[in-house]
Amino acid sequence: MKKTSLVKNIFLLIFSLSIIFELSGCLEKLNKNIDEDDKYDGPDKAMAFEFNRTKDPATGDVPTDHLLHAMYYTDSLKALLPFQLIAGYGNWTERGPNSDAVGGSNGNTRANSGIASGRIRAICPDLNDATGKTVFVGGVDGGLWKTTDITASPATWTLINDFFSNMAITSIYQDPFNKQNLYFGTGEAFFNGDAVRGVGVWKSTDGGTTWNQLASTTTYLRCAKIVCDVSGNIYLADRNTGILRSMNGGTSWTNITPSSSASVRAADIEISSTGRMHVSIGIFETTSYYFYTDNPSTTTTAVSAGNWQTATTGYPTSNVDRTELACWGTTLYALPVTNTSDDVPTIYKSINGGVTWAATGSTPSFTSSQGWYCLAIEIDPANPNDVIIGSLDCYRTADTGNTWSQISTWVGTTPVNEYVHADQHIIKWYDGGNKLLIGCDGGIHYSSDGGFAISDRNSGLRIKQFYSCAIHPSTTNYFLAGAQDNGSHQFSTAGLGATVEVTGGDGAFVKIDQKAPANQFTSYVYNQYRRSTNSGATWSTTNLSSTTGQFINPIDFDTVSTIMYCSSSAGTYRRWTNPLTGTTSVEVGITALNNNSVTAVTVSPYTGNRVYFGTTNDVGSTKLCYVDNANTIASGSAGTNINTGLPTNVTTACVAVGTDDQHLMVCYSNYGVASVWVSSDGGSSWTSLDNNGVNLPDMPVRWCMFVPGSNTSAIIATEAGVYVTTSFSGTTTPWFPSPSSPQCVPTCCNTEVRMA
Q1: DSSP letters of 210-221?
Q2: Alpha-carbon gap, residue 590 to 610, rounded angstroms
């Protein structure tokens, strides 16, 4: 579509996929009587994809301190500098959704018409409320929320804050000694591909109303658990640092990781009602460790009398990815995840405070090879024989683990008619065993009878993680968006409203035909697509390939030639020639791609059948090229390289076109590089708009676009939120953060414009 007419209405939508990715594990979900291609999530497969997108090519690592600097820099600019608006592009209105519903036959059905929100790992019932109705939850990408009545359906949620400099809330705990003190830790610890980075611990001293980052914790990046003892001392399990203790409210910390542990990757901390503290250490290592101490406030790193102790008869710790613990009094349960299958083959129990362990009578098949990623267990505080576990679905035992029964279903209505979204991360049993809360990739679920009847409390929780969007060319407020682990959604109302999940599984890139908008597309992982030719009323499935392309696969639709162009195998692009009617596609090898994988696809709006491709650096220098006659060109063709002067060891995030094919913009999603470049001569030469961290913080830029009708103004989506500039001046280009846009929660962002 040409960008020459006046803009009547623009929606720039920033969507989130949390990202530090490190290789491990495999996630396979059960079919459960739906198309198996609509399963949710593949965290391990996204890992390599996203880790390479963000790493500093000079070091091979993701520099979290640079992210922290970017957040602080952005916040300071918002507070101190007058923001230069570009015809209204600095003002934002939240679009949600605030709830959702399943529509059609392609969405993942939910028992009792359940509502989903987004991933929750942190839940904290407020000890200041004797009724047990007030609850805090933390989204791993959506900030801190609170309801004063979890028993209400729907509950009313209040957003405490989603402008923290980090929103990856992974654990919340309230000081039982001083209930006005609450703490939350940030950063997902278990190597999932969509793991969101953290930057320490936040503290509230007024019962959760206001929060401040503890300056002593900014290097604690992967908080698996934070807890307090009855005296108010704080304990933190951090994957990168180990077990830490603070006895002064978080002002300073002492590392108390047991000396005999060859790992510092702390996975879990539990403090029993007896005062004994139990820890599991080891995440994706050949050996994991279990320790306990009766003196957590005084223990040193020593494994000796009065300090750390080990079990005399333990549960398996060799070849274990992680172990989740639960305790009540002297009763403990352990869920060790084997690294050969990523399952929990056997649940273990101790009845003497962790001194000796024995296998329970049976173990249900509940992890489906994803125990490394999502795992939860909780003991009924009124009855230690009563236990609930969760991973893909939730199970319960009332006889100390001799038998288990399924109590929730993530899709459909069998074997039970109680909906809990897949991938459970936390189970909270409280109020004498009457109330039960479950946090998962689809939000929070509540039971008032200990898990027999379960219903969601997700309405109003606006924490979905979106990858991309597509905007209808003429129908105001209509757009599609693809969400991590929560399908693809149809927005159709003004302002903040509900959506319809039109297709299930992971929602990825989406497209709407700008000339014939009844034709719409959503996508699942790799080259698997869903198509509607009746404005999203019904959808059909077209799976071109379940192995080629990126996990979240970049695509673009040529509205003139009605061809879909997609990333595919290394050194190729995939041409889907009849996306409106059929399944004909072909891989086209292009020499200019240098055998690298395509990570950005843009169809030229000016030159017919010209497509721009940007790559990562799989086997050689990153390439940027265009292919003319892309609709008919045969494999083995050359393409035209336009990457002279551009960075060569990076991942291309986006290619944008201005008012003609002479004016181009490209951005990169790696740390440690100049991220934004422009050309005014069709790519023969390039000018950097980023002085590698000087005028724009050193952070990934996820998407870029020219302001419509301008070749010298731009909007970019970054790790720290939306930035804009009104004038290009090389490496001194002034960039300003949009004051009303939250950070992108270390995310993969996509921007879309609707033109008149």
Answers
A1: S-EE-GGGTT--
A2: 14
The per-residue pLDDT for 15 is 37
Residue the block writes with tokens 């079990």: 311
Please give the residue that has the higher pLDDT: either 420 or 88. Answer: 420
Residues 303/263, Cβ–Cβ less than 8 Å: no
- What does the DSSP 8-state code read for residue 704? E
Q: Residue 412 carries which side chain, given as an amino acid letter?
A: G
Q: What is the pLDDT of residues 645-665, one digit of tens each?
A: 999 999 999 999 999 999 999
Rounded Cα–Cα distance for residues 187 and 104 (Å): 36
The answer to whether the beta carbons of residues 22 and 47 sit under 8 Å apart is yes
Rounded Cα distance, 142 and 122, in Å: 12
Helix, strand or coil, per DSSP, at residue 41:
coil
Q: Under 8 Å CB-to-CB from 426, ≥6 apart: which residues?
A: 120, 121, 122, 123, 376, 437, 438, 439
State how far the Cα of 263 lies from the Cα of 112, in Å rounded to an integer. Answer: 44
Residue type, 127: L
Per-residue pLDDT reduced to its tens digit, 383-436: 999 999 999 999 999 999 999 999 999 988 889 999 999 999 999 999 988 899
Structure confidence at residue 619 as a pLDDT band (50, 70, 90): confident
Q: At residue 693, what is the residue type? A: G
Mean pLDDT, to the nearest integer, of 311-324? 95
CB count, 10 Å around CB of 744? Answer: 26
How many C-beta neighbours within 10 Å does residue 41 have? 26
Query: Measured between alpha carbons, how far is residue 409 from residues 30, 377, 420, 489, 536 in Å?
Result: 11, 17, 6, 21, 27
111 by DSSP, 3-state: which? Answer: helix
Alpha-carbon span 51 to 53, nearest angstrom: 5
Phi-psi category of residue 11: left, alpha or beta, with phi > 0 → left and psi -120 to 50 → alpha: beta
Of the candidates 217, 349, 324, the residue with the CA atom closest to the CA atom of residue 270 = 324
User: How far is residue 119 from each of residues 42, 285, 427, 594, 741, measured CA to CA in Å?
Assistant: 14, 25, 13, 38, 21
* Cis peptide upstream of residue 154 (ω within 30 degrees of 0): yes
Strands 212-213, 394-397: pairing is: unpaired
Distances (CA, A) of 470 to 477, 488, 732: 11, 11, 33
**Three-state SS for 420?**
coil
Count the Cβ atoms, other than its own, within 10 Å of residue 35.
18
Calculate the average pLDDT of the chain. Answer: 88
Cβ neighbour number for residue 81 with a 10 Å cutoff: 12
Q: What is the DSSP letter of 36?
A: G
Tokens of 158: 């209040």
| pLDDT higher than threshold 70 for residue 37 | no
517 cis-preceded (ω within 30 degrees of 0): no
Half-sphere CA count of 531, side-chain side, radius 13 A: 20
User: How does DSSP assign 68-98, residue by residue?
Assistant: HHHHHHHHHHHHHS----STTTT-------S
Rounded-to-integer distance, Cα 43 and Cα 375, Å: 14
Q: How far apart are CA 508 and CA 528, in angstroms?
A: 10
Query: What is the sign, positive or negative, of the torsion defined by CA atoms of 64, 66, 67, 68?
Result: positive
CB 39 within 8 A of CB 29: yes
pLDDT band for 2, please (50, 70, 90 cuts): very low
Instruction: Check if the beta carbon of residue 177 is closer than 8 Å to that of residue 231.
Output: yes
pTM of the model: 0.88
Residue 261 near residue 289 (C-beta atoms within 8 A): yes
Among 214-218, 311-315, 742-746, the range of highest mean pLDDT: 311-315
Could you give the domains of the chain?
A: 36-95+464-737 (2.130.10.10), 120-456 (2.130.10.10)
